Amino acid sequence: MGFAIGVDVGGTFTDVVLRRPSGAVIVAKCLSTHDDPIAGIVTGVTRVLSGLDPGLVTRVVHATTLATNAVLERRGVRVAFVTTRGFRAVVPLGRYARVEEDRYDLRFTPPPPPVDPADCFEVTERISARGEVLTPLDEDSARRAAAEIARRGITSAAVCLLHSYADPAHERRVAAILRERVPDVVASSEVWPEIREYERATTTIMSAYVGPLMASYLSRLEDALAALGVRAPVHVMESGGGVMSARLAARRAVATIESGPAAGVLAAAATGLGDVISFDMGGTTAKACVVRGGRPEITHEFHVGGKGSFGGRRAGTGVPIRTPAIDLAEVGAGGGSVAWIDAAGALRVGPHSAGSSPGPACYGLGGGEPTVTDANLVLGYLAAASIPLSPSLAGKALDRLAEPLGVSRAEAAHAVHTIVSAAMASAVHVVTVQRGIDPRGFALVAFGGAGPAHAARVAERFGIGLVVVPEHCGVASAAGLLAGELSADRVLSRLGARDPEAVFAGLAAAAAADLGVSPDDPGVRVERSVDARFAGQSHDLTVAWEPARDRLESRFFARYAQVYGIEQRGEVELVGYRVRVTLAAPSGASPGDPPPGTAPSGPLPSPPPGTAPGEPPPAAPGRTSSPPPPGTRPAYFPELGGYAETPVRTRATLGAALDGPAIVEDAESTIVVPPGWTARLGPGRAVHLTRAPSPAGEETRDV
């Protein structure tokens, strides 16, 4: 029994959630500090700890965009790349696709490779795809490479030898030689030993590129928390939805690239509704993901940066990363997204964001550009916030759009609201319609500081009739962190393995060792899957492992039909083996605690008998509380011809049902209930928005 803290650093806000042993939570939301994210974290943690003994905290879980930003902004450390002789050009040549506007650019210049071609080195060796030694390792060539890397002052190296997944002996020896001269060395056989040398190489390079930054950052974070009196272990959310120790995150920094978005999806899955679409709109971006049967969709390859359409990323753009990640679409549309008029006179919203500094104009921090938050304030949708909002400043910012467009301030604001809702709907389209999934059978779970204000309008575009807004929706990602379980993943490509069980046993032992446990220990869960393909094909699909061959093939056939839309039969071959080892009860969590975000709101309950001493009283300072409802205020709804007096409630005053138009205010977010929708309080104090069935023959709007 102990206190747990979840910390989510976003582009605009840093959210901190403290969960008490009773299940109740204390939340804090503060502006992110981009120059040093730890400063914002310290501010938030200090707020939630007010009146509490920091020594009672037994677990800290953190979601960070450090790795993502380092890759996108090209500010990682200088990396040397070491590979098999004859293959040093694999990474510099890269794999580029001309998509979107680039396909029409006659002077198209490919983006720079992830490592300087001059920093690519070769060693003499060769292993076949079957693990046979074709050319013995020349250790002197490795020593010469190490000496030159050290002479250049490069402190991080990535080693990716051809077919090292089949036999890592040469690669491990090369890494050992390099470590005699180079401080940080990452080998592909230690990170992600899969076939396809290009993707394996870029994954290894990115791990070496951001690893030192991650190690330094987490060390400073632990020191900063210790200065506050919090000496609990720090865990980091990984891209696949589990959490790892800070030590493991520093070694495998590439696994944290999708850290932040993964936490929000866990919060959506924790609603217990089964089939839902996670819709997370913060201050900078909006993310969408499909959760089926309570489990989010997982992909084993994604692209960082690059270009694509409506939240999808096209192969051949950006940097490919081979590691498990929650499969989501992301668009540059958030509360801080800036609205602007392009050269053709058309209104655009995003992807540029005002961020936390200077922020939207209504924050009064020096920003003057109109943003989505300013538009929502002008429309009457917002009033309360974590910081004071200025309607006059928001109005002046929107006038900068209204005048050149020749419309009123309210019409300009509503246009901004509509455009950003359409942009977010495109992300939902990517993860549903484009993948053959009918979204009408799903509930839309909305969270993030801006998500609940747009959720109903997004749902309307797909004919979705149920929107769920969890309690503490504005900090749901931080709360979702506390639902993550300690886990470790291992993978191995092994064509034609004679004993799959032996392969799985080795992978499970290695993954369990990462967690400091044994696969056979109580509370340890081992999940096994395989990468399978039809003989003669080059790409594979991942399916859950089944020892009976006929059942395994049936699963593969079903998965193939689901992905490609055609029934196919034929000889199936296994390409790779995957294991995830999970500790079902993470340290510091109470097995009987309710899911994060489901604790009662209002005054915190009295501590139960046996609560650890030092727990703050029910009215603990630092807890964000819901403001009193103002009763009504004018809000803009085009169905009603413009502004109309609109009821304003909180969850506590919602009543049995509230028909739209209406507004439900939270401490960290605002729920907009448009005409035709009804709001009710559901289980776990979640607000359920339901829509009356569309008239016969009415079609869902195109997205």
Automatic annotation (TrEMBL):
Question: Which intervals hold domain Hydantoinase/oxoprolinase N-terminal?
Answer: 5-181
Spans traversing the lipid bilayer:
none
Region: Disordered; residue ranges are 586-644, 682-703
Query: What molecular function does GO assign, one term?
Result: 5-oxoprolinase (ATP-hydrolyzing) activity
A Pfam family matched in the record: Hydant_A_N
The annotated regions of Pro residues compositional bias extend over 592-632
Give the signal peptide, or none: none
Cellular component, GO annotation: cytosol
Domain Hydantoinase A/oxoprolinase residues, every copy: 200-489
* Alphabetical GO biological process terms: glutathione metabolic process
Superkingdom field: Bacteria
**PANTHER family for the chain:** 5-OXOPROLINASE RELATED (PTHR11365), HYPOTHETICAL 5-OXOPROLINASE (EUROFUNG)-RELATED (PTHR11365:SF23)
Q: What is this protein called?
A: Hydantoinase/oxoprolinase family protein
Query: Can you name the source organism?
Result: Nonomuraea montanisoli
